[in-house]
Specification:
single chain; 167 residues; alpha/beta; Rossmann fold; binds iron/sulfur cluster
Amino acid sequence: MAEKKCSGINRQGASEYETVKIAKTDNVCPMCEDYAKKQASKPIAVICCEGACLRGEVARQAANLICNWLAPEKTVRICLGGAFTKDTGQRSLVKNAGKVIAIEGCFIQCASRMMKGVVDNLNPEIIIADRLYDFDTNLFGVDEMSEDQIKIHAKEAARKIGEKLYE
Ligand code: SF4
């Protein structure tokens, strides 16, 4: 069987856009808004694609490790859905951060493309997480790799990203 490789033309600079209609909501989560206020002084906002495949899962776990354990004093973990779909505290954290890091599960780069659509002139540092650990690139789903192995890859990705934060 031919090896399946994730690759593609990089169209991040393309002039084509998809226009989306996001339903506005009056719902506000007070706990989330409190979190945003408390975290506002952190210099680095970390967005992550949160994808459901194993690449997204590794990225998600790596982002959690960085923001909660490896560099909690420097980084704030962003709730991507909240920041993308409404202009409240989470989006403010992204807008106002000194630096934004986008941990992407793969080359599709969903997190940074989403947030660039709602935050003008956003220029995040993009990290493609699946280039930071060795694995069988034919694998796709979270059910195709053990939970322990996913955690090992997430730790490796987090360690490498964390090292860059302290360079
Ligand atoms: S960047 Fe890749 S892994 Fe993450 S949500 Fe997009 S397609 Fe899925």
